[in-house]
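Tokens in:
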């Protein structure tokens, strides 16, 4: 998981250095859609963690520069590490989004909501509904296009924890 955090952070930092600033948020309302690479990790209590790569689709609406709503749908990835097994069928969630605009192109954000996870995980729950949260950053690279990176804790039950780091592209409709 540490390698994934370093990878996501490095990609975001290189993006900050390599792109020029573009404004893409305004006072007006707007909708957006995104596609992300989802680097997930399933860590059961008392067994080795498993991890793999999946695809996450997101869609949301921004009410202003500070508040919005967002939905996630993720699929894919399977790993088998001895007595630990992880196979993600799907992950779905709905979240409130709070943003902190740093400048016209860089926004930090936090998400809080509910996620539903379904898959074949051993040991642990095969499906879970839990309170979820995370944080991330979005950088505008063109008037309607941005790149993003975020960390989410989707489930944290007594049996296991399901975390993910995502890196992707966001399109803002105007």
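Residues out:
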């Amino acid at each position: 998981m540490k390698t994934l955090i370093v990878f996501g952070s490095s990609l975001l930092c290189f993006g900050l250095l390599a792109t020029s600033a573009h404004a893409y948020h305004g006072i007006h309302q707007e909708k957006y859609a995104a596609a992300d690479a989802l680097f997930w990790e399933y860590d059961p209590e008392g067994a080795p963690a498993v991890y793999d790569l999946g695809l996450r689709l997101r869609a949301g609406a921004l009410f202003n520069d500070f508040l919005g709503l967002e939905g996630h749908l993720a699929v894919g990835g399977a790993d088998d590490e001895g007595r630990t097994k992880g196979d993600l069928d799907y992950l779905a969630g709905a979240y409130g989004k709070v943003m902190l605009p740093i400048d016209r192109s860089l926004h930090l954000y936090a998400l809080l909501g509910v996620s539903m996870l379904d898959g074949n995980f051993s040991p642990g729950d095969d499906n879970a509904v839990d309170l979820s949260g995370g944080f991330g950053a979005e950088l505008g690279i063109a008037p309607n296009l941005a790149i993003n990176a975020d960390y989410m804790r989707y489930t944290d039950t007594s049996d296991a924890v399901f975390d993910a780091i995502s890196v992707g592209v966001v399109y803002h409709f105007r």
